UniProtKB/TrEMBL annotation:
Stored InterPro entries: HyI-like, Sugar_Epim/Isomerase, Xyl_isomerase-like_sf, Xyl_isomerase-like_TIM-brl
SUPFAM superfamilies per UniProt: Xylose isomerase-like
Entry's transmembrane regions: none
Alphabetical UniProt keywords: Isomerase
Tree of life domain: Bacteria
Annotated family: Belongs to the hyi family.
One Pfam assignment: AP_endonuc_2
Annotated Xylose isomerase-like TIM barrel domain residues: 21-255
Descriptive protein name: TIM barrel protein
Length: 268
């Protein structure tokens, strides 16, 4: 059965970070996720999770370096090793990775170190994924590779198609290297989110949901997320569905919209 998790950095933003865990628990969530770990006190984070009976479903595994930039290979791999150690401290089973590092705002892809071809960038990513696969298997952690939209939020990002992400993951051939399918990003880039998730289901290790085009809660845009979540359940998807969006009005309204997606078969 699929599980729902709520993003405690994009949601509950009206509360201090330390108070968001109790709020998520009160709202009926058993799983949360977040972005980067470097700015967190990891032992304190683990205590906040344990004290509130929560599990961390996913967090970011890469930082200021681009996987698709050959010049970043060594520093990228060093950061991945640090992310694995951080994940062990907080018992996080999933680390999210990307092709490019992003500028803080606006979130354009950081400039490359050279004028590399498409093929060079693909090979750079494959080399890194092949190296980190046994690390992930040994640590019991899954890395999920996320494609991002390039029409609104992340201009210049290299990995923008589900098929390319799947092709890379399939070529690596590890059960601990999978795809993060973000329905918001891929709706903007590709559309056909039900058909795509059905086609590539064996390669999907995590999902993100936000409505399009505004990146707010379900019901504020054009995607029918009640049907989409039910579609995932019928397919037999057993991973987490992470609600990563910015509330259009306030957190209580956004949380209500999330819960309504699961009314047919609520799984905490």
């Amino acid at each position: 059965m699929l599980k729902r998790d709520i993003h405690i950095e994009s949601i509950y933003s009206e509360l201090p970070f330390e108070e968001r865990f109790a709020a998520a628990k009160r709202d009926g969530f058993g799983y949360v996720e977040m972005w980067g770990w470097e700015d967190k006190d990891l032992p304190q984070l683990k205590k906040l999770l344990d004290d509130n009976g929560l599990k961390l479903a996913a967090m970011s595994g890469d930082g200021p370096y681009s996987m698709c930039d050959p010049a970043n290979k060594e520093v990228y791999l060093e950061y991945i090793q640090r992310s694995i150690e951080a994940a062990k401290i907080v018992d996080c089973p999933v680390l999210v990775i990307h092709s490019d590092a992003l500028e803080e705002w606006p979130q354009f892809a950081k400039p490359m170190s050279g004028d590399y071809s498409y093929e060079t960038r693909i090979c750079a990513m494959f080399d890194v994924l092949k190296i980190i696969a046994p690390w992930a298997e040994e640590a019991g952690i899954t890395f999920v590779l996320e494609a991002l939209n390039i029409v609104k939020d992340h201009c210049g990002n290299f990995l923008a198609e589900t098929k390319t992400a799947v092709d890379l993951v399939a070529a690596v051939g590890s059960p601990n290297i999978k795809v993060l399918y973000d329905a918001y990003h891929m709706y903007l880039n590709e559309g056909k989110i039900c058909e795509t998730t059905e086609k590539y289901l064996p390669y999907i290790g995590h999902l993100h949901i936000a409505d399009a085009p505004g990146r707010h809660e379900p019901g504020t845009g054009v995607i029918n997320f009640k049907s989409f979540v039910q579609h995932l359940d019928k397919l037999g998807y057993q991973g987490s569905v992470g609600f990563e969006f910015y509330p259009q009005t306030d957190t209580p309204t956004a949380v209500k919209a999330v819960k309504e997606c699961f009314e047919y078969a609520l799984v905490k």
